[in-house]
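3.2 Worked example (two chains)
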Amino acid sequence: MLVPLLAGALVSVALGVYGSRHKGDSIVFRVSGFENLIEVKSWMALAAGVLAVVQLGSALIMYGKIKAIRPPSWIGILHRWSGRLAFFIAVPVGVFCLYGIGFQAYDARVLVHSLLGCLLFGVFTVKMLVLTKPGLSGWILPVAGGAVFTILVGAVLTSAAWYFSAH
């Protein structure tokens, strides 16, 4: 368990250090149908958040935590693919935030968002490394999955939800 935790901590710290040392380049490109890159990032973050809710629901069904629903045979596939899609959507959002803007701390919301963004990929690393370790997945996998979900929701609330409420 120590190796996944150290790897996750290293990822989080490395992202934070890089982001704080790197001056954002404000990557400029246009995506058809969107006013600006912040709008694209916000919609993608929202999509990752919705997929995270699918992850939570499918995990609760898959592990029998919702007794009223008998787990369908395809629930594992839904869980895996919604997680993969959420990750593949979150990566470009994280790249834009980290490379295009950098680690910011000019107000409390932005600082919390920067910290959550770095932490998200570290905790995700822990979850993926634990997934392959026999014996640990029984108790730590739901804890790691819950942490990834909570952090992702926090990151979406401090970015996309804030953006949409302000615009």
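3.2.1 Second chain
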Amino acid sequence: MIPKVFKEVIDLGDGREISIETGKLAKQAHGSVVVQMGKAMLLCTVVSNYKQSDVNFLPLTVDYREKFAAAGRYPGGFFKREARPSDGEVLTMRLVDRVLRPLFPKDYHAETQVMIQLMSHDEDVMPDALAGLAASAAIQLSDFPFECPISEARVARVNGEFVINPSRAQLADSDLEMMIGASADSVMMVEGEMDEVSEEDMADAIKFAHEAIKVQCAAK
């Protein structure tokens, strides 16, 4: 049986595209998507226990992994296997968790897992900027109680111009870098670093990223 695949394409406005595909992989999960930008490809799956846990909080687990296999490599040295998550992976997990967690109902205490894995690596694409988009898209496909679609985007200022989801080369030449998490209506999370900039420049960067996030949320 040939699986029926559904695909949505998001135009970033500069010749680059982000595609969201579902229906082919991880069909036993409550929700699964493959998000692709360039050659970079992320698989996100979400599952939840339909039975509420006997706790007074949401036991939400967000896991993000960039494995060596995504680049056609394997770990070297004495241990030829994947190790614990790197600091960058842990920070990406926290960024995604920070935006998702408040959008579940306060009385929803069922164990929930969001698993994001880098399937294919692209030297010109930073995949952590796509993790929030993948997580939200997978949740939207499930039957979990969830308030609204969200997404995350990285914004950088290169030669005085703002760029969404810049490459590593562009990021090296930037003087401002921020990760923005937001819904279509409001900005929920801001994190980043920069040289000394004015409040006006920082606000402009947030607005620029939010406009891109609105397009991504509409695609879900």
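3.3 Remarks
The first strand starts at residue 6 and ends at 11.
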